[in-house]
Design a protein that fits this description.
By secondary structure, the protein is an alpha/beta fold. It has 2 domains: about 1-135 and about 280-320, Rossmann fold, CATH 3.40.50.450; about 135-275, Phosphofructokinase domain (Rossmann fold, 3-Layer(aba) Sandwich). It has 10 helices and 16 strands. A hairpin with a 5-residue loop joins strand 10 (about 220-225) and strand 11 (about 230). Helix 5 packs across helix 6 and helix 6 runs parallel beside helix 10. The longest helix is centred in the middle third of the chain and has 22 residues, at about 135-155. The structure holds 6-O-phosphono-beta-D-fructofuranose (F6P).
Length: about 350
C-alpha cells in the first residue's frame, strides 16, 4: 500500500487496519515509501505487526508521501508495471486524494495494474464518497480556533477573520463556521461581495454585538458589488498538480472589511496546523473502516474500486466515480446563515 499527495490525519489508521486484516487472512502487506515513487523504485518496508503497532493515533504517514506520478516521469509507467510483476504484488492499495484516485484508476484501466483506492484529504473534495477521513480533524482544529477567537474578539470589539484550507472547496470553512458559531463565511462555491458582508456586519454590531467572526476558505474569491472578483494567491507558483498556490484571502478580506465598516479587524491563518496531529475519534473510525474495506477488496481481487462512505455505510465504488472536485453541499450554507446578521 502507499500514501500519496498531501498527508492528513488518519493515514496511519488506514495502514494499520488494512495491514491487520491482510495479515489475519494470511497475506503479506508492504508499505511503498513515498507514494508511487516507492513502487517505481521498489523501495518498500514490511508492514508486519511490529511496524504497525501504536500508530492508530499518529498523524502523518509512517510510509511517507509524495506526488510522484508515473505518467509524468520518464519510464514511470514501465517501472511501475515491472515492479508489480517482478515483485509479485497481488494488489496496490493507494491512499490519496482526487488526483491519486484518477491516476490509480488509469493504472488499472490502461495498464492492467491491480489497484484499489482509499480516499483521503482534509478538504473533503473527492467525488464518489460522502466524506474523506482527515476532514473531521481539520474541522475540529478550525472550530477550536474559532472558540479561542471568540474570547479575544469580544474583549476588543473587533472583527476576526479566520482563513482555513480546503483548496477550491468550502467544506472546512462551512462546517467549522457552523460548529464554531461564526458570524459570516466566505467559500469558493458562492461569491459574497465585500459590501454585502460589511452591511451584515454593521447591522449585527448596531443590534448590540461588539465583535464578529468571519471564516474564509483559502479558495474563496474577493468579490465587490461592482462585479469585480479576484482570487488571492500566495505567490506566482503552482503546486505539483499545476494549481495556483492559494493563501492570502484572509488578509485581503480583512483589509477591505475594515475600510468598509470602520471596525478594527484582525486575521488568523491556520495553515498546516489543520493537517497535523492526532486524528479525531471520528476520523480514526472512518479510516479504520476504509482500511478494512480496502483489504477485503484486495483479498477478493475486486480491483479498480475505491472504499467509499455512502450515508453511514462503507461501500465499494468504481474508481471511475472520482471525477473532479466535490463542491460543498450548499444546504449547509442555509444552516450557517440562520445565525448571520
Ligand atoms: O489538499 C490539502 C491541502 O492542505 C489544501 O487544503 C491546501 O491548499 C494544500 O493541501 C496545501 O498544500 P501544500 O502542503 O503543498 O502547501
Amino acid at each position: 500500500m502507499l500514501t500519496a499527495g498531501g498527508d492528513c490525519p488518519g493515514l496511519n489508521a488506514v495502514i494499520r487496519a488494512a495491514s491487520r486484516k491482510l495479515i489475519a487472512e494470511g497475506h503479506h502487506p508492504v508499505g511503498l515509501i513515498a507514494g508511487y515513487r516507492g513502487l517505481a523504485e521498489r523501495n518498500f518496508v514490511d508492514l508486519d505487526r511490529g511496524q504497525i503497532r501504536g500508530i492508530l493515533q499518529l498523524g502523518g504517514t509512517i510510509i511517507s508521501t509524495s506526488s510522484y506520478n508515473p505518467y509524468r516521469e520518464p519510464n514511470g509507467v514501465e517501472l511501475v508495471k515491472r515492479a508489480v510483476d517482478e515483485e509479485g504484488f497481488d494488489a496496490i492499495i493507494a491512499i490519496g486524494g482526487e488526483h491519486t484516485m484518477m491516476m490509480t484508476r488509469r493504472l488499472y484501466v490502461e495498464e492492467g495494474i491491480p489497484t484499489i483506492g482509499v480516499p483521503k484529504t482534509i478538504d473533503n473534495d473527492v467525488t464518489g464518497t460522502d466524506f474523506t477521513f482527515g476532514f473531521d480533524t481539520a474541522v475540529q482544529v478550525a472550530t477550536d480556533a474559532i472558540d479561542r477567537l471568540h474570547t479575544t474578539a469580544a474583549s476588543h470589539n473587533r472583527i476576526m477573520v479566520l482563513e482555513v484550507m480546503g483548496r477550491n472547496s468550502g467544506w472546512i470553512a462551512l462546517f467549522s463556521a457552523i460548529a464554531g458559531g461564526a458570524d459570516g463565511v466566505l467559500i469558493p462555491e458562492l461569491d459574497i461581495s465585500v459590501e454585502e458582508m460589511s452591511e451584515a456586519l454593521t447591522r449585527r454590531h448596531e443590534s448590540g454585538a461588539n465583535f464578529s467572526i468571519i471564516v474564509v476558505a483559502e479558495g474563496a474569491n474577493l468579490a465587490f458589488a461592482s462585479g469585480e472578483t479576484r482570487q488571492v494567491l500566495a505567490n506566482e507558483t503552482t503546486d505539483e498538480y499545476g494549481y495556483p498556490r492559494l493563501g492570502g484571502i484572509g488578509a485581503a478580506l480583512a483589509e477591505e472589511l475594515e475600510q468598509e465598516t470602520g471596525f478594527e479587524t484582525r486575521v488568523t491563518v491556520l495553515g498546516h496546523v489543520q493537517r497535523g496531529g492526532t486524528p479525531t475519534a471520528h476520523d480514526r473510525l472512518l479510516a479504520t473502516r476504509y482500511g478494512i474495506k480496502a483489504a477485503e477488496l484486495a483479498i477478493n481481487r475486486e480491483y479498480g474500486n475505491m472504499a467509499a462512505l455512502r450515508g453511514t455505510e462503507v461501500v465499494s465504488v468504481p474508481l471511475s466515480d472520482v471525477t473532479g472536485v466535490k463542491t460543498v453541499d450548499l444546504n449547509y450554507l442555509q444552516v450557517a446563515r440562520a445565525f448571520f446578521g
